[in-house]
Amino acid sequence: MLTPSFKLSQDDNHVFIVVHAPYTNIGDTDIDVDGENLLFVSSPYFLRLRLPGRILENEESKGSYICDSGDFNLTFDKENPGEHFENLDMITSLLAPRDIPNLNPNLVEILEEDGITIEHEEQDQGTSNQYGYGFACKITTKFHSIGSEFPQIFALKVPEEVSIQDRHELRKKYESLKFSSDHYLADFYDDELINPYLTSKMQWDENGFDDNAAFTEDQISLLKELANKHYILTKSEHKQVFLSLVDILYGYCYDKRTTLNESTVESSWTINKISSTLSWFCVFSDMKDVLVSCYRRALIFPIFRNFELCHKVKSDVVSLLKKNKKCVIKCFIDIHSMFNTSNDARYILNQLYINDYLIFLQKCRSEELIELCHNLANIEISKADLSLELDELEEAAKMVCQEESQVTENEMALKMASMSLLPKSKGNAVFYSDSSSSSSNSSDSSDLDSDDDSSSSSDPSELLSIQDKFVIRTD
Q1: Strands (E), 26-165
Q2: How far is CA 428 from the centre of its chain?
Q3: Are 295 and 383 in contact (CB under 8 A)?
């Protein structure tokens, strides 16, 4: 059976449901409502929804089918008029969930109605998944030597043999080897290259951006295909999921800023490379550690490596998280599409991380994203935090520039000092007298060449008459 596309909306007293089921047999269609549960069956389509509130099937209920579009338009009354149904646009979370496993009530602290369970942390649980990876480190044996199978995607070859703590140490050593001081300094001084990316504005910060815009048909098509899971997480796992969320979004925002919101075929590589979660299976327990990792990798691997650019990208993540969670979900859908169309088989990242984030984000509370945003905004990263000796590099580069400038000035001074001011040249000018007076006026010609005008007894008017008799010719 196929899961049809669907959309839900509401007013104060009604819920409106549009089910897209083209080429179906209307006579075989069955619709059943039971409180918060709705069942739609029309071969070959099957849809079962669990709504965030109760609806009624009564005489006021309406239904129609539009042949041209293949849409069923259904209208039901709310059991409690005036009640607002939350998250009616979270497609995956409305699908009938899988059965929730039996839980030990002594271990469960919070059972969220949206499908996330937070458990008490057991003392020995911190090491139980120290070799895990994937979303919330829940994968331990599903893939064997996954890093070796996808070497262009993962820097860590056998995550099942390297503990989470050791992954961080190996990652830092690898990054230090890959850091190029020449590339960093080139971008540090090339303002003309970097400025367009420092001054650009993200699409979600543009005037007129609608963060409540409905999901497109393609986006709905993806969300309805995801399984509606129920997540059981410890407190530390729950925190780690949100920190890795920041890690992935940082890579996404870096790509958007450095492509001026127009992603390219290299965008999937950029996101994959900047995120330690996606390339090293890293897990974080502190927000500052996340940012330090993101800054370091943004200064080591992509084409534009600038510290101020790193700050801008961090601000982009903050502004994105300030939007509603639908906006964040759309960004992860965009990431999902990039990975699915990547030539380097990055679809595996969707299976390990992105699919679960798309489900998790629909279930988590908006207040949790707001809190995450505030925590991120309050963290300041300095160049010294990155352990790349950036301050020392910049200071050394400035000294070299000053020395080169001084050398250039000295060379110019030496050249100027070696130059002598020559007397004004007369070129190849030769004075010829008229043939009629060449001999008689030779002495007057010598008077014209004399520098001592005061010794000459010639009258000025007489001198002019003498000059009139000469012409100048240049050989």
Answers
A1: 30-42, 45-56, 62-66, 71-78, 108-111, 116-119
A2: 71
A3: no
